[in-house]
Write a structure and sequence with these properties.
alpha+beta, 6-stranded antiparallel beta sheet, two-stranded antiparallel ribbon, 27% helix
Length: 165
């Protein structure tokens, strides 16, 4: 089974852009990257910490959703991610944001991401790589969700549409 997936990438420690680039390179080993978003900067959710850099890649993978999750966790671990506190600072964060035309729900994984409709910092890069994206559960266009939510606090970093990964 081939999945058409959008993976959200985030980092707010160390060389964030370098970390996002290396994570994207490693994701390319899992399948074929179809598109990459611009880089965005946004304020963190949670305890005081540096701003985040966020991006997304659209990838075709021959994995089931749970196996893709395992692969993303392995990439995070290989890049030094240590989970200390919820919504705390991190070297790298990889999330399955969306799967084209399908929803997935299990104890370990819910896709589309549970908070996607509330997070402009995830919607902006997702729509860069999948402008047609809709919530497969109810058909709502994510572009409409973002228009209602607004982009306040989410800044596209100039010149990053094709230069970061």
């Amino acid at each position: 089974m081939a999945l058409d997936a959008v993976i959200g990438l985030g980092s707010n420690l160390g060389d964030s852009v370098g970390m996002l680039s290396e994570a994207a390179r490693r994701l390319g080993a899992l399948g074929e990257i179809q598109a990459q978003s611009a880089l965005y900067e946004s304020a963190p959710i949670g305890p005081p910490q540096p701003n985040f850099r966020n991006a997304a890649v659209r990838i075709q993978v021959a994995l089931e959703p749970e196996a893709l999750l395992d692969a993303l966790l392995a990439v995070e671990q290989s890049l030094g991610r240590i989970r200390r506190e919820r919504w705390g600072p991190r070297l790298i964060d990889l999330d399955i944001l969306w799967l084209a035309g399908t929803a997935h729900s299990s104890e370990r994984l819910v896709v589309p991401h549970l908070e996607l409709r509330k997070r402009a910092f995830a919607l902006c890069p997702l729509l860069d790589v999948a402008p047609e994206a809709r919530d497969p559960r109810d058909g709502v266009r994510y572009a409409d969700v973002l228009a209602e939510l607004g982009r306040e606090g989410v800044v596209e970093l100039p010149g990053t549409r094709s230069s970061w990964c």
